[in-house]
Batch of 2 targets.
Target 1
Amino acid sequence: MFVESFDAWYDREHDRMIATLLLTTGDLELAVDGVDEACSRALERWPRVSSMESPSGWVYRVAMNHASRLARRRKTEERLFRKLVPKPDLPAPAGEIWELVASLPLRQRQVVMLRYVAELREGEISAALGISRGTVSSTLHDARQRLGKLLTDNNES
Amino acid sequence: MTELARLSQMLIDESPARRASLDDLRSRSHKRHVRHWLQTVGALVVVLAVAFGAVQTEHSASTPPLPSTQLASYYEAAVNVSNSTLAAVGLPPTVAIPSRVTPSRSTVATNGVVSYVGAEYCPYCAFQRWALLVALSKFGTFTHLDNAIFSSSSDVYPHLASWSFVGTTYSSKYFTFDPTELTSSKRSRGGPGGFQRLQRMSAAQRVAFNKYNPQGSIPFIDVGNNYVTLGASSSPSVLEGLSLSEIGSDLNRPSSAVAQAIDGSANYLIAGLCTMTQTAAPALCSTSAIRSASRSLQTGTPSSTESPSATTYPVQPPTNAPLAVWKKWSVAEHRFWLHAAATYRSPNSACTVVKTFVTGRKLSKPLFGIPAGVWLWGMSLTGSCLPGHRGGLVARTH
């Protein structure tokens, strides 16, 4: 069985992971922190992670969970300390895509980004998000319909 | 979706984030481990702090803290019992005389040491601590005597106010004081006598304790390997229902039951302590009351300063005697019963006397030739006998 080195996998996947997380969370800081955390954990246990069916799926799952934790903590701090941290504008072309997908529910956004940006298969997405394959399919279907409508509306306006 | 894929590919090609080096990732792993370790330690500290707090709260709930002014007043009062008060109290018949012991080579380590072995739950120890405080403060100084406690609420003479010798220091130019409180008043399964262990006896203290006190009674006081007291020197009932400050105040009133019992016990202890001073003994050692106590210590019998009426039932005056004569007789009768209560032991070895009471009533009409208006006294007691033994507790009547 061929086992890819962490360096090679990391070189190839890093930028794609950043893009996926960025378009899922809409926040570059969360995306970078999530990816770095997940990759550091993957490096630590690479022999085990690399032998998984989808190492990238595992790393995406860790990265998204970490980003969600950070987002929750940030919200709590804002509430407790009445501290409002302005969200920086996303760099182009991320800003354009974000405008398009921001209105999608989080779960739909996650599935769409993992499918079209991270280029994971439906089975890998199901494992990464801990949901059934059928749910992945139906969520993708709903997201496509919604994005199609949004694109039509945008073009018309 | 084609548009989405195209734009995201642009984003991937021109990534907005720098790729962390492998060293950065390893350093991040290391920091995470340190953080987890600190969180674990922190959680443990919190758990321990909460547990400790709970224990403290439980302890303070069982022994409610007393105001500092009250502590100060009891300490001051006990320390300042004057020589004239001690002389006025003298050697009441209700007080037991410490036993003289024959020092042996095995107990030589306690020469020059005043030893106390007791426990915080023990009501007899509560009494004896007071007598020790009065006596020892004539020869040295206590510090940190501020841990107020109550004896067990479920024992005989429940909830007596006292303090613990734990954490106390005593300095004297004559001798050293070695107190040991074996247990607290908090229940603990597996602890000695079912109470939480506090301190252990020193090796020298244990040798003297085992030699002079084979029954293992507490409180045990060893005055320089010369005299010992086992149990309380008088009935702890005099402390019942009194606060620290009330006891402290009573210590300075020679006629009070507290002063009679505690100051009287202290007089014997002082006489014993005087034998340890060798040269430059305090002036107190040469007062008549202490000299008299010294004689009693030597002979083991009450000194001539004792009222003879305490050991023999007073002769009843004629019925038509003046009321003042009858009142004097009543006082003598009271002293007799107090002495009887303090010294009474069951004639049956299978029975144990737990508590004795001296009670009185003012006669509203003449009885047995005693006119109305005179207080008549008597003694009652409680105790227990082994199965199959009865009536062994009955007090002899006069």
Note: Residues 74 and 85 of chain A are 9 Å apart (CA to CA).
Target 2
Amino acid sequence: MSPLYSLSGIRQRYAGRLALDLPSLSIEEGSIVGVAGPNGSGKSTLMRMLAFLEMPQEGQIRFDGTSVDASSGGSRAAMLRKHVTLLTQEPYLLRRTVAENVGYGLAVRGQRNSADAVRQALADVGLPAQEFMHRQWFELSGGEAQRVALAARIILRPKVLLMDEPTSSLDEESAERIRMASMRMRDAHGTTLVIVSHDREWLDSVTDTMVMLRNGHLAG
Amino acid sequence: MDFILEGIYKAFLLLLGGHEETWSAVYATVAVSSISICATVLLGAPLGFLLGYCSFPGRRAVRLVVDTLLSFPTVVIGLIVYGFISRSGPLGELGLLFTLQGIAVGQVMLGLPVVVAMVANAVENADERLEATLLTLGADSTQLLRATLWEVRYHLMLATVAAYGRIVSEVGISMMVGGNIKWHTRTITTAIALETGKGEFAMGVALGLVLLIIAFGVNISVSGLKRRVAK
């Protein structure tokens, strides 16, 4: 069986500086991949490329049978983004209610955006729907906002959930909720998880594969 | 002083008594400015988004032109529109000269730079995480435009009221393109200019009061929206 992601000959530069140099990297479907490395090692660049927010300047990414490279048009990346979603360390919440934030992804996909699905997604991240659904974006703490952002991605049932330092700035309860919800996604729906985290204990306990980066290169 | 107080007293009588000529100018102003502001926002919001969001050669030059147009004198706009829609002009066959629609064309040119510049500025200064968030949730380019404009909606409303304030108070375009025709294209501002020139101070004051009320409403809206934007 071919891997879900195959990256080959990836080289990415910013202002002439080499940010990422990956001769080869594969990610199997349904696996949990941890990405670690010091600041500036290229972790976030890799995540943006896996999320198809950034196209490779050199090399190719093959995802589920579809290839993208520097010459690929925006429509192909947009099509692939329907299967992949990214949760960042400090996610942006739309200036809307919690329910509208959680349901936004379904709405833009033209899928039925039911209140039940929103309630379930909120329950998955440990937020009581009755209490949170109608809150405005500015009425949430940092941990609650992060959990709402995760709920907005869980509801999409993506093939791949990319998480870039999802728990680093959270209280322990919120961090644990995020960890549990992401693991449940993999177990229940076979979602592939790619996690960047400084929490090596968590990564070591859940990941099938670790990708170590240093100065934009694979370190082990 | 008596002359001014008498003018104000007579102005109230004209307004409260339903003086037809006065209310005709009020109606023409409200009608044409409503058409103008709707067209201005419909055109200006997407153009402002493109200017604030997209990178293209000559973008800085376009920004400079738009910013320069913010202070475009209304009589110059009136002159240009007059040239285009006069009988011998390239758009003369449309028959827009001395009509409210003709005034609206000029007023859209007046309001457009305000909306484009303010929306472009809001989009440029929007949170840098917004685009990635929308894309990773599956938005396509049209949905990205709509969601971004919704995110900066208070700025858009602020731009709308600022443009409306400019449109409703202009006199040069209405006078040159509309021709100040009684019962037809005479607006509040052109009527004030005419009536004051004729010595009919009361009607000028009456129309001035209506304009002040509109301006007051616009200012209240602007200050309320500024508070929302600052939130």
Note: Residues 21-230 of chain B form a domain with the MetI-like fold fold (CATH 1.10.3720.10).
